[in-house]
Specification:
The complex is a heterodimer of chains A (187) and B (655). Chain A folds into two domains: 36 residues; 119 residues, Glutaredoxin (3-Layer(aba) Sandwich), CATH 3.40.30. In chain A, strands 3-2-1-4-5 form a five-stranded mixed beta sheet. By secondary structure, chain A is α/β, with parallel strands linked by helices. Chain B is of the alpha+beta class and 655 residues long. In chain B, strands 2, 3, 4, 5, 6 and 7 form a six-stranded antiparallel beta sheet that branches. A four-stranded antiparallel beta sheet of chain B has the order 1-10-9-8. The chains are: A alpha/beta (187), B alpha+beta (655).
Chain lengths: 187, 655
């Protein structure tokens, strides 16, 4: 072996470690911005604005409806929550939504494939955590968002880009370990 | 107040670690004896400070101080005292304190027992250990302070995770950390040797016991983790090739290679560059495991609460230590010329083969563990690398490894011939073949497990042949053989026993390849046939425990009309944690485990899963025997003589 080849060989561990380190660095950066998520099913919408939509309000709920226009220029991060009165996990996550509302976090609701009267009864019984509330009775908007079941929650940053999606009920752990850090990060 | 004391002690330890890192290293460079001499007192001081901090953390756990955030998140007043204590290290922050405590204790051990080390080498080793300590103490204080207060205090803690209240799991991390930290010591020796540009037999004599001790602890730690998964998770398996399990396997594999190549350095002054590289990589793998588990880059049941900030810090540490060591390696390793020359067929040659094969297995595990992550990050492709890949890729490497493992110890150093080895092993080969055909005959056409049994018999037989050869058991009379056995170095006993342990584990793996399981929904009174037994569900009843309610099934295992065992698996519900756990019922006779789990109930039927796990206990017995072999080898005279304290030196002199 020539001295040069030997020297090059002795450098290979360093080169390999440096490459691995760069890869891990990229992963961690990706995790911070939400582009890389080792858990969870990826959403094609991460890092993009939500699809265009307009939806009617849920009458008598006392809060306005919203559409994609309202999701463009925001004063801070918001949560968009797809829910239904017939969905049992939605009852589990409801106290956490109420807590977020008390903390002043804007939670926007979309009632998915639900009869308006049932939705209203649910909100009267458990309380209304939503700052704005729209109804998606045919469930078309949910298809555009790529929702695969209720409850499902999206976090949008102040530019209105989707940063995080979570399918399943927001438990205390999800609230503490995911949502609160994300709200701080995108505040 | 106690928490603040603990925090202060931690900061004090950081200052002492800084001093320990730089003063001896500079002193060794300038040949300044006084600066080198501060290494030992600083190591003692750092250990005391960290021990005080650890004691404070344990105290706030024992009194369940809910003003401390860490206690609130991880403990609860209703926990038994034992689990309050073990809870100290059952979380991210506390486990790091335990980590640095063990590291400091290792530094202390080098300081206390290293009297016959050359003073510059000793100062450099302690200095590098101090440098490692600095990084981890900074990490704790910057990102993972366990003494953070919380105001107003909640009425009680939240940490009652019932799965984690288990003595096996409580002992698992300390054992693993002793292994990981042991590799920090060999790393320190490697870096010190690179700085000095010299590796000799004395260096090998120091590195070998440390790598051996680390390896033995890691073996026990991994076995305990696997055992815990077996009886607590209730899936009936023992190794899932989960990324976190692999993360602990990687340093073990590299450590196995290091352990063997360090013998060559010690005895023959060859393989120096390679051994130094292995010592660096072994620690790198330990750090990599820490990084993978705690940064959240991988998805696993075992992962700690993850945080990219922490991940970034650990990555920084990993890059600093590994990058620095590899640069040093690239710069200085060329200076280390081998002194001992050996033929390809020799003990050294066998160890080189062992190293090549073990490192190839490491590469398989490494790539299989990391590839899905990199594929996801680079190409956004979700790929999953599962057990089939690991089994298929490692099998062709394990077979030659076991073949060679039997022959290596029978070869002399420097130059050997194959034929005498084959002559001494022919009956072992016959035993292995016999085992193969017997297994094939008894189990019916299961080729892979039969191959496993053949190699198990081969490996155990070869270990016996090795001992028989060394004690001249068949060539001389019994009392002479006994005298030889007593005079045999403990390292020889240790290696033969550890090799036999590998064979026992191989038999366990082969046996588990023949395990049977059945999933049935049964009404009380119904029964099912499996593995020659009749399993009858007698009933399911409610059961109330101290902090849980449970459904407990009674299953009678019947053979020839006689009830052999009554098994009572249960399914517990912990209302505080809102969590279900399964309590497996296991009946063992050391040859096989009967294993029963109860699942959901529906329409008066209970879902029962039953397993017949052939030779399952051998997996952990074998691992314990491997660790025992390591321990015996550690007790060898040449280790004691090379690392004496005064009392021991006094005893060794007249012998």
């Amino acid at each position: 072996m020539t001295p040069f080849a030997r020297r090059a060989l002795l450098f290979t561990p360093f080169a390999l470690a440096a490459m691995g380190g760069a890869g891990f660095y990229g992963m961690l950066q990706g995790m911070k911005t939400g582009e890389y998520n080792p858990r969870g099913v990826p959403s094609a919408l991460i890092g993009r604005p939500p699809p265009d939509f307009t939806l009617p309000a849920l009458e008598d709920a006392g809060v306005p409806a919203f559409g994609s226009a309202e999701l463009r220029n925001l004063s801070g991060p918001v949560l968009v929550n797809f829910w239904a009165s017939w969905c049992v996990p939605c009852i589990i996550e409801h106290p956490q939504l109420m807590r977020l509302q008390r903390d002043g976090v804007p939670v926007l609701g979309i009632a998915y494939k639900d009869r308006p009267a049932d939705s209203l009864r649910f909100l009267r019984q458990h309380g209304n955590p939503f700052r704005m509330l729209a109804k998606d009775e045919p469930g078309r908007v949910a298809i555009d968002w790529g929702v695969y079941g209720v409850p499902e929650t999206y976090l949008l940053d102040r530019q209105g880009l989707i940063r995080w999606r979570f399918a399943g009920p927001i438990t205390q752990e999800v609230l503490d370990q995911d949502i609160r850090p994300l709200l701080r990060r995108w505040a | 107040m106690i928490a603040e004391l603990g925090h202060f002690a931690l900061a004090l330890a950081l200052v002492l670690a800084f001093a320990q890192a730089f003063l001896p290293l500079i002193g060794a460079e300038q040949r300044n004896a006084r600066m080198m001499a501060v290494a030992s007192p600083l190591a003692i001081g750092q250990t005391l400070a960290i021990a005080a901090s650890f004691g404070c953390l344990m105290y706030v756990y024992v009194i369940n101080d809910t003003t401390v955030l860490n206690v609130v998140q991880n403990s609860h007043s209703a926990k038994p005292l034992l689990y309050k204590i073990t809870g100290t290290w059952g979380n991210h922050e506390g486990s790091l304190i335990l980590w640095v405590l063990i590291l400091a204790l290792c530094g202390l051990a080098v300081a206390a027992f290293g009297r016959d080390l050359p003073s510059a080498l000793k100062a450099r080793v302690i200095g590098v250990l101090g440098l490692v300590s600095v990084g981890f103490l900074l990490f704790i204080i910057k990102t993972s302070n366990p003494f953070e207060r919380m105001w107003p205090p909640p009425p009680d803690g939240q940490g009652l995770n019932p799965i984690l209240q288990d003595i096996g799991l409580a002992m698992h991390p300390p054992l693993l950390y002793m292994g990981y930290v042991g590799y920090a010591v060999t790393f320190a020796f490697a870096v010190a040797a690179l700085i000095e540009g010299r590796v000799d037999a004395a260096w090998g004599r120091w590195v070998r016991p440390w790598s051996l001790a680390a390896w033995a602890f890691l073996t026990l730690g991994i076995a305990l983790g696997s055992w815990w998964a077996y009886y607590e998770l209730g899936w009936g398996g023992y190794w899932f090739w989960d990324p976190v399990e692999n993360a602990s396997l990687l340093p073990w594999l590299i450590g196995t290679a290091l352990l063997h190549s360090a013998i060559v350095v010690e005895k023959r002054e060859a393989l120096k560059t390679w051994t130094v590289l292995l010592a660096i990589i072994a620690f790198g793998m330990s750090l990599l495991g820490t990084f993978l588990v705690r940064s959240g880059v991988l998805n696993s049941v075992h992962a700690f609460a993850n945080d990219p900030e922490r991940g970034m810090f650990i990555l920084g540490l990993l890059m600093f230590y590994m990058g620095g060591a590899f640069l040093l390696f690239a710069w200085r390793a060329a200076a280390m010329a081998p002194a001992g020359i050996f033929a390809p067929v020799s003990r050294e040659g066998a160890i080189v083969l062992n190293n090549l094969l073990v490192c190839s297995i490491t590469a398989v595990v490494f790539v299989g563990t990391l590839w899905p992550m990199f594929a996801d990050a680079l190409f956004s492709a979700k790929v999953s690398v599962g057990p089939p890949f690991f089994n298929m890729a490692s099998f062709p490497l394990v077979v030659p490894l076991l073949l060679a493992m039997a022959m290596g110890p029978l070869m002399p150093w420097k130059r050997a011939q194959l034929w005498p080895v084959v002559q001494r092993l022919w009956w072992v080969a016959v035993l292995g073949l016999g085992g193969f055909f017997l297994a094939l005959l008894l189990t019916g056409q299961h080729v892979l497990p039969a191959i496993g049994f053949a190699f198990a018999a081969w490996t155990i037989g070869a270990a016996i042949a090795d001992l028989a050869d060394r004690t001249a058991l068949f060539r001389t009379n019994r009392s002479n053989a006994w005298a030889r056995a007593k005079g045999l170095p403990r390292a020889a006993w240790g290696s033969a026993i550890a090799h036999a342990g590998v064979g026992i584990v191989a038999a366990g793996i082969a046996g588990m390849g023949l395990a049977q399981e059945k999933l049935v929904a049964m009404e009380p009174g119904q029964s099912v046939q499996m593995a020659g037994y009749e399993w009858r569900l007698d009933g399911v009843r409610d059961f109330v425990g101290p902090n849980f309610t449970a459904r407990k099934a009674t299953i009678s295992v019947i053979q020839d009309g006689r009830v052999l065992h009554v098994m009572e698996p249960s399914r517990r519900w912990f209302p505080v944690g809102r969590q279900h756990t399964t309590e497996v019922s296991i009946r063992t006779n050391l040859l096989y485990d009967l294993y029963a789990v109860i699942g959901e109930e529906n329409d008066g039927k209970a879902v029962i899963r039953i397993h017949y796990n052939l030779l399952a206990p051998w997996l952990w017995i074998g691992a314990a025997i491997m660790a025992l072999g390591g321990g015996l080898s550690l007790a060898d005279r040449r280790v004691r003589v090379s690392a004496p304290n005064r009392r021991m030196a006094g005893q060794a002199a007249p012998a």
